[in-house]
Amino acid sequence: MKRTKIKDLLHGEGGEVLVKGWVKTRRDSKGGFSFLEINDGSCLANIQVVAEHTLPDYSSIENQLTTGSCVSVRGKLVASKGKGQSKEVQATEIRVYGSAPVDYPLQKKRHSFEFLREIAHLRPRTNTFGAVMRVRNRLAFSIHRFFQDQGFVYLNTPIVTTSDCEGAGEMFQVTTLDLSNPPRADGAVHGKIDFSQDFFGEKTFLTVSGQLEGEIYAMALAEIYTFGPTFRAENSNTSRHLAEFWMVEPEMAFYDLDDNMDLAEEFIKFLLSDVMEHCAEDMEFFNKRIDTTILETLKNIIDNRFERLTYTDAIHQLQKASKIFTYPVEWGFALQAEHERYLSEKVFKKPIIVFNYPEQIKSFYMKLNEGGETVRAMDVLLPNLGEIIGGSQREENYEVLLQRMRDKDIDPEEYWWYLDLRKFGSAPHSGFGLGFERLVQFVTGMENIRDVIPFPRTPKHAKF
């Protein structure tokens, strides 16, 4: 008999069923039976199992039916007479796959998220992390659905690369050389390391972005998107940063900055609408236990057109604010999270898109506006979060891009292939990046980004 998921049981008809999952709690009655709360991860809710002590072999497994034990229950699905559940299973057979001792870490009490990070192998069994992963799963599915429905091609870009897309230099190096005695180019003890003897024959790193490679295929397939892991060796221990995280990066030929902003707004609204529809139970949980404003916030984003303003206008709004900011508000400085949140939460009270940023604070590949002071960059800012998407129209002019590389001390020879795209059939094109974990964090209301990825990688922490 095939097992039935609990999420289906709760909406199913009566009859014989087979349930498999983990015991959340057990309560014994003096009347000769026990109540087991079973969860199988398919939904937030448990199913109550009523186990009479007269069941065959019950006496031999009674001491194994502890919190955390994994069981199989065959029985009859019936209407429940107890409070808090509509249906329950009257057990006819119980089998214990794996018992859990009394020192099982997840007893029936509140555990801090800090503690649960130390037992990342068990935390998925809690209500919160089960809900987080179901929401994460749905958002990942929705991302593919959004782009596939619009005819985009899903592209896998390299994880090992020789290029630094962001130009910040905070990259993890990949090598097979003996670090205690690496080969030297001139044979001298302190000479330069000879990377020609490394596995790839040159210096390589973990990718910080799939954008540059994505542009290659956008110049042939017109509309592509990547969705994969990226890595930043940034020594930052905040609730918003990870060393390993997932990025969604569409690249589109024939899109200007306005097209790019339109797509980003449509994308965000689609994802939020979809998760509210298909993860309603989990979202109610987050609204009740994590952030009592999350459903209202998401609805506000879905229902309102995103406000659009230039970086210059954003600076003017901040300079006339009565609030005292920690970071300076000056034209030419990057907007900080406190600035972004003030604009979206206090000034406009809805999502905003800031565009046309100063050239000197943005990457070399962004298209210059007339006058050369600003580039066609854009950031989508959400209330309660700040930046969720960063993107731009890319520079398609060979000479302009070459000069920008030189101005920013980037060696053009290392990006010869990227420049080639501007030589051979170049086209206007745009794209953006969305940090997937930051999206999950925003949707669930979780305070720390380490709690929305299965196994967080942060400075000094790479367990599991």
**Would you state the CATH class of the largest domain?**
Alpha Beta
Number of strands: 16
Task: Provide the gyration radius in Å.
Answer: 27 Å
Which percent bin holds the helix content? Answer: 25-40%
CATH architecture assignment name of the largest domain: 2-Layer Sandwich
Which of globular, elongated, flat, extended, rod-shaped describes the shape?
globular
Percent in strands = 15-25%
Low-confidence stretches: none
Average pLDDT: 94
Number of H- or I-type helical stretches: 13
Structural class: alpha+beta
Largest β-sheet summary = 8 strands, mixed
Amino- and carboxy-terminal Cα gap:
35 Å
Describe this structure in words.
This protein has helices spanning 6-9, 58-61, 113-118, 127-149, 211-221, 257-278, 280-289, 294-303, 311-319, 337-347, 398-407, 416-423, 436-444; strands spanning 15-29, 33-39, 47-52, 70-79, 87-98, 153-155, 160-161, 173-174, 204-206, 223-231, 244-253, 307-310, 352-358, 374-382, 386-394, 429-435. With 464 residues, the chain is an alpha+beta fold. The chain has an eight-stranded mixed beta sheet. A five-stranded mixed beta barrel has the order 1-2-3-5-4. Strand 14 (374-382) and strand 15 form a beta hairpin. Helix 4 packs across helix 7 (280-289) and helix 6 (257-278) crosses helix 8. The longest helix is centred in the first third of the chain and has 23 residues, at 127-149. The two termini are 35 Å apart.
